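User: Sequence in, structure out. Go.
Assistant: Echoing your sequence, followed by the structure tokens.
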Amino acid sequence: MPLTKLQFKPGINRETTSYSNEGGWFDCDKVRFRMGFPEKIGGWVKNSDSAFLGSCRALHPWVTLLGEKLIGVGTGLKYYINAGGAYKDITPLRILGNRPVSFATGFDTLNGAIVATDQSITLNSATGFPAGGGRILIGAEQITYVSIIGAVLNGCTRGVNGTTAANHSNSANVSCCTISVTDSAEHDALENDFVTFTGIASTGLGGLITGPVLNQEYQITHIFSETVFQIEARSAGTAISDITISGGLNQTFVFSNNSDSGTGAGSPKATYQINTGLDSAVPGTGWGAGVFGGIGTGGASNPPTTTGWGDPSSLTVDGSTLRIWSHDNFGEDLIINVRDEGIYYWDRSGGFTARAVALNTLSGSNSTPTVAKQILVSDKDRHIIAFGCDPEGSGAGVQDPLLIRFGSQESLTDWASTAINTAGDLRIGSGSEIICAVETRQQVLVFTDVSLHAMQFLGPPFTFGINTISENITVAGPLCAIAVNDSVFWMGQEEFYIYSGAVKKIPCTVKDYVFSDFNKQQIEKVVASNNSSFSEIWWFYPSANSEENNKYVVFNYEQNVWYYGSLSRTYWVDRGVDELPIAASADNYLYDQENGTDDGSSVPVSSISAYIESSQIDLGDGDKFLFLSKIIPDITFRDSTANSPTATFTLGVRNFPGGKYLQTDADAVSRTSSNPVEQFTTEIRTRLRGRSFNLKVESNDLRTTWRLGTPRVEVRPDGRR
């Protein structure tokens, strides 16, 4: 019988039905197209065995004057410098260590025996136990509670932190590791903020909560009031960086004994880092925002107040937005901005123990902006530019979301516009706020929520000029645009765009597939990435049932085709400083992408499941049945390191476009020789009958990669009935 070549159009098309897309590909995962043919994507390995805290939304690699490779890592909780795989915390400070504080914790005994299922625990006295919840120890069992009424701990979760729920007798000791901290003034802290204590004498609270236990950095677990918050005591000498794991902090808790009745010997002081942000956006403050019957303010040892039905909420909006950083190099140093918050400077010469400091606190600072949506340093002319910042003069500190300011050329601190410098400002006249700015080789493109503008260096006396490019665009969020040479690609609201001299919508063959399965409440998490080795723009986005980026869509701008898949990445930077792209994952690790063939997120590594599936193929007008008797594979396993790499070929037949696959036949194609010529399974025999058929190629083996060629099938007409 004659053989028929299966030559499919490159790219995935989901804008039509599988049947009408005859001759094309319809579905895939972890597959790309190169020279028109599908192949499995590259694998990934951990850039470092160390994890960071919070979801990463910003990466910035650079090389110092001494050739040191560094990566700036901005998360919802911290800002780090990755140096040789170790994470150095340079998060700016908000309140320096001159604030006196005092401590309190509880220790008592059970008033009555309890069994392993009890969720309320009665003490003889709850004095010192934090009213807003805490962690206790009875015997070997750790227990958490959420509130106290009288001497009763309510909402108990039994056997936490790997311990086992058990029965306990009357008068058993109840120890507490939760510490109430009272500041001498308003702390302005948020839950999850970080604070460092110093000056506590060795005796600490008098028992097991010693000075070395308290004299370290802590994460705040609960806010009681404007002056009172709580922490959980942990073993002495355990730096936050040392106990950070993918799931957060791996702490060894220290519990009180009956001698822990003091407030902190010595001269306890607190140093606060800048407020943390959120890993996910909070969609408004209406119905469903916050906790029903939520806790209001209360004292350290008094029951907190609650809001009743119809009462106004005490929910604060502080820290309710997604934490997004921007950063750029000023020489080998770093300019850092928290979106809609402060601008900071990190001096490399100060070493990794030095933290970033507010830009306006530097010596000689003159009219320096204190708040912005984004910063960058223009490469051509060496100006620091702040977007959506506070104005010069009397309006300092009050953010103008459409204002652009730039400091004098080559200056960190000179921002006051005069006749003898190049500092100045511009204001965009359309839109409600600046969303992001992207630098190309020739200009800086500035996006508002409805328009696109080009900012160009003119030189004195105007320094910069700005022109409107389009007033009819949409933009998904601050991270959704990427520059490739002089072109800029971005995701909009259910559209994809390119600017290359003019704004154009990019025809997308998977547009409905992407935006019909999209969590629009977390749209600001969308991140655009360049994978220049393969001429690809990747957008990572959260699907409808996910709070975090778990899927991607790719535009190959060289072949003008689209494809997609599933992969959890919160940020990605192209190769350049490093030989491979680097990406941040939701598991709090950095990964070297396009490295090997496997998933390096686990030990041992796991395989990557990859597949591609064609649309349906029929004979003539589809009125005849066909009979498939064999397929002759055409595939290469080049670059695989497995002894016998395999890929599974599956043929399926249907009688109707919307019907089920009535019959399928699958078999593995294996490489049998790699030297001198690659050889693999010659043919797969089948016996399939239907009106149309399709092909699926997939693999799930370690150390395996593949590239599909032009398979052939033996197919013949088999009548009309």
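User: And one key feature?
Assistant: Confidence is low (pLDDT under 50) at residues 285-319.
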